[in-house]
Write a structure and sequence with these properties.
- The chain has two domains: about 210 residues, Up-down Bundle (Alpha-lytic protease prodomain-like), CATH 1.20.1510.10; about 80 residues, 2-Layer Sandwich (GMP Synthetase, Chain A, domain 3).
- It is built from ten helices and three strands, in the order ααααααααββαβα.
- A hairpin with a 5-residue loop joins strand 1 and strand 2.
- Helix 4 runs antiparallel to helix 7.
- The radius of gyration is 25 Å and the shape is elongated.
Length: about 300
Amino acid sequence: MTHSHHHHDHSHSHAAPQSFNLAFAVAVSLNLGFTIFQIIFAFLANSMSLMADAIHNFGDVFGLVLAWGASWLLTLPARKRYSYGFKKTTVLAAITNALILVSTTILIAYESISKFIHPAAVNAPIVIVVALVGIVINGGTALLFMKGAHDDLNIKGAFLHLIGDALISIGVVVGGILIFYTHYLWIDPLIGLGIVIMILWGTWGLLRDSVGLILDAVPRHINQQEIQEFLQNLPKVQAVHDLHIWGLSTKEVALTAHLIMPGGALSDADYDRINEVLKDKFKIDHTTIQVEMGSTDYPCKRSEIC
């Protein structure tokens, strides 16, 4: 009943991921090629900062592949057993991505610290040139995702990664220039550690948001208090309970609620209006509302728990 007007919602959610296919293809192939190139030159230049940047880039290529796969799965229709389709895979992709980045950074931290203890000569010109190429590639591919970063955590993850990579490459360039002129060898592992801290700081938010989505927490951009008040202030509504708001994917949000209405039910027009407000004002895509008269003979079993 509450889903009567939902058919038009899906047209845009199906079109959006499709338009990112090319963006993902370009970003993945360019970044993967560049990462291999970067790892080779990091060995040649004996540079920890360049290696850290390469490992981070590799983590991001993997992340891009996951995000790409997940945004493709968003377009698949629902199946019998998977009535929500495969939307949650976007959340799994975000979590896997965060965990991979955390594990690679531990490796870089270890290597950087050992380079502090045993400093080694670094070929600064190679570091500078390779990192400059990185700025162009990462910055350029980030722009492909700018459009979708606003309303999809998954695309936002891809965008932030690439922007982060470009910024880190700038740091590596500056470090290379400093090493070239000062010959202080500790600058290189120091930048390596700096990159580690940046990756961990950036990954923490992604990890927290995706764990929240897996645990069906209320998504961070949703104001639960305002929604509760909106439902309670509907005409003839005495109480609201069993209100649940959770993310179906990194893009879509669902809501269920019980409304106690002793003085009558809701018409189709009422449902439609409620759905419209929840969609436009509160960004809820799927709404299911149960109306009860609130009779004492049949108290709602959920009202005590929720």
